Amino acid sequence: MGEQSKYLPECPEMGEVVRKLTEEYGGHVIFSRESEVYVEVPRHELRDVAKYLYSSGAFLKTCAAVDERPLNRSFALYHIFGMDSKGYDVIVKVSAPEDDAWVPSIVDVVPAADWCELEARDMVGIELKGRRLVRRLVLPEDWPEDIHPLRKEVPHDFRPPSVKAESEFRPPERGIPIGPYHPVLHEPEYFELLVEGETVVDVYYRGFHVHRGIEKLGESPRFTYQKIPFLAERICGICGFVHSTCAIMAMEKAAGLRPPERAEFIRTIVLELERIHSHLLWVGVAAHVLGYDAGFMHTWRVREPVMILSELITGSRKTYGLNLVGGVRRDIDKNKMEKIMKTLDRVEKEFKELANLLVSVPQIRRRAQGTGVLTRSEARALSVVGPVARASGLYRDVRKDYPYLAYEEASFKVPLYTEGDNLARVLVRVEEVFESISIIRQLLDKLPGGPIMHEKCSAIIPVDELIPPGKYAVAAIEAPRGEDVHFLMTGEGRPYRWRVRAPTYQNIPALRPMLRGDPLADAPLTIASIDPCFSCTDRALVIDVRTGRARTIKLWDGGVGTCRL
Amino acid sequence: MYLEILLATALAVAGVVLAPIYDALERKIKARLHSRVGPPILQTWYDVLKLLAKELVIPEGGYFTAAIVLTELFLSIALLVSVSFLLFFQSLTMYVLVAVFISALSAATLVKSVTQNNLFSVIGGFREYSVVLSAEPFLILLVLLIGAKGVSDLKSLIGLAPVVLTAYVMTARIPFDIAEAEPEIASGIMIELSGPLLAANELSLLTRRYVMAALPAYLFLPWFVANPLLRIGLGLALTLLTWVIFAVVAVLLGRTRAAVMLKGTTAAALALTLLFIIVESVPYG
Amino acid sequence: MSIMKLLSIAARAKVVTRRYPFEPPVVTEGFRGKIEVDPKLCWGCGVCTRICPPNALTLKKREDGTLVLSYFMGRCIFCGMCAEVCPRGAITVTKEFELASLTAEDLVRNVKHDVVRCRICGRVIGPAVEMREATKSVGGAEAKYYDLCPECRKLVVARGIMTKVGVRP
Description:
Number of strands of chain A: 17
Number of domains of chain B: 1
Oligomer: heterotrimer
Structural class of chain B: mainly alpha
Number of helices of chain B: 10
Mean pLDDT of chain A: 84
CATH topology of the largest domain in chain A: Cytochrome-c3 Hydrogenase, chain B
Mean pLDDT of chain B: 84
Shape of chain B: globular
CATH architecture of the largest domain in chain A: Orthogonal Bundle
Structural class of chain A: alpha+beta
Low-confidence stretches of chain A: 1-5, 538-565
Strand content of chain B: under 5%
Number of strands of chain B: 0
Largest sheet of chain A: 5 strands, mixed
Distance between the termini of chain B: 37 Å
Distance between the termini of chain A: 31 Å
Radius of gyration of chain B: 19 Å
């Protein structure tokens, strides 16, 4: 946290922020907890509040739109600001009456709010005042104009008739299409690269092809709190455990219960195992994108024991099914501990050798160095997360900034690079693998005894009674790709609103500054370098870049960077 | 004379049959270096036969592309035949013929890529162009030089270096496979091809690879080994050896970038070719 | 040449892929595959169907008067929650995962249960085994009501009381 302050203003204390918001901006606290404070402010003050928070060192985690008409005849938008250097969240709520449903846009002061504002407009139908570029982000073009899926009157299995829409999205003449189906994208997504010769001059993005309506499903009567971890786990095929743990952490916060220490340790160990396998997977894919298939195959060979280990500990190679509200379902015994230690030793030794080999391959070094550069100010303005932020000199890591589970029990370094290029992103991830190995070793060493499930919870007891309606919770976890945020508003026996913000959601907007000016040959690597996970990002429906020709606008008031939107 | 013609033809036929087998061997070597089991030794033949059994789909770009693909196959076999004849006939005409076929084959590949109505293919075509530019002129120059003057001295073997380098580039292996570059431009020049046309394309690529593996040996052997049967034996053995070396090199490297490649390879090929010319001209100068 | 290190890495690693499906797959002892329901132990109570996150287990009433616990592997996420909650221990998690099939019916396993109908109104009350076992533990005077549905039971009991106190129903 100390390192961050070198670049950013130190965040004010929570009391100071609350005083300022209530006294100067006419807000009132609606709910607070140790590390979260929920303040409702009048909507005309939102822009000033956002400006104040963002300039005092806060990052924007995301915003969540909620249809609160059944409760108070209005819509609400919750902006979640993370005070990284002080480790608490400020959630700023603005309400909009149902017959006058608009909120002011803050995208010109907080560029990172771009996507989540558009999503609020698509999914809940809140209009954004003062926004220059308003377009559909999540909903497909043939979706009816007046149907907003996350409004309460829309059933979760509703399929509207498709309307004929004149596509405003026209591929530019010289555009090189990457997607929706392309060898480098393992999921459907669409990038259109404008090139001059072999140089990329601009990028169009359109995503959300794999939207599955998971948030809506979580609010439907089909699900109960204890089933949601299994649903959350299916948001992502790589970091599923992150989502299940994060959803559970939000539910446990809302219930005010803390799982036994041993369960927290086991969750942390599995989270770090997941980071190891995810980073190894990514390093392999990066090698493949650069045509070095030997690196790809061997990285995955080294990764395989981690997968086998996950299966041994949890019962499955992926989608572990280990988590329940209140604890975990399987213990780690002596025998398993030994196997973990042995596997980690082997992975550490083999990956060290392999990582050295990879960076020595001339084509890899030459093509990764200096390409896909994201400057620190661009990274800051867009509130990017995870290895992408840390490769651009932003010291951000949820494990350090907002310690959760058993992370305070382990000492570890957060690798930081300032180059902001593809090579830096490779190196950050390579180093993180070794840090994760060390974390697991320390935690196994300290693994406390005791039960693995909270006394009030079990597989058979419905936890619905433990989680009262009308509570709020924000949980964040450092996923392999960066900060994963779950926002929960509880209802009767199931979430009233469950908002998931995956790390890729925050990082894709950064691809534009990264790709521009680079050789076409390196574009796939740059796209791959944020380790995009479209399933995570799309959990909530198609981005449609309808902005026409690019023009330069200022990124944010601080004037640190500019970004063509 | 007739015997030699017969032998050369047999050698060419053997090349067509062997090329897919060597390719499967290459896949096997690659697999071993990847710690994988790998495919059986006839896999590439199985692939080609399977593709031939599929329905014929005329790609976007029409019959012209289809015709060019077949022309390419014809040219690559013609090149193989002419190179096989080099082992027995060392007249300048033979060498000129080889040079012409090399050049014609590259031209066909280029035409193939730009006739397809597909962006990826066109990009692949431009990349192919840069690959060809960086190696082919030197290879042709070397073939003609050896044909015109012959080589007899051991020191002439220095010429092997530029021949092997340019031959490697012409095989379109990693790092020079940028014209298809699967993760970048989705198989580039081959994107519109399928079924029998893809099989024909595959066969011509493999035949070309066989020629490039054979070329270093076939260019130099006749000047050093008198016995024709020994020439054949050594020729076949060295071709296999070169193919294996090429296969291993391709595993060790990553894919390059078009701009980087043009400069690097051209410089290396130019330097080595000049060195050969200087070495060759010393006794006379 | 540091890139040559690959050769030594490959030499030490040897061949790690397997000739699957000609060699058996490797699964650890922790692995969870499809489940098996023991029809002899199952009572048809349906607790598993309520906990099942993807609704792979369902309890269906058939026209022919049977109750079917249906397991559809196509939906199963192999979490094993059903086995954990089954009060009868009738569900076991196996290590089998090669479930591919050309017909969807192959992915369904049904456990049929006869049902007990109300002796008066004929409505289905519950699975026969569960009812039988349940009455065993109840015994006594209650046992004679076991083949009545809750509504009819109320009526019968009320009628009994009324007769006893001499009020005409």
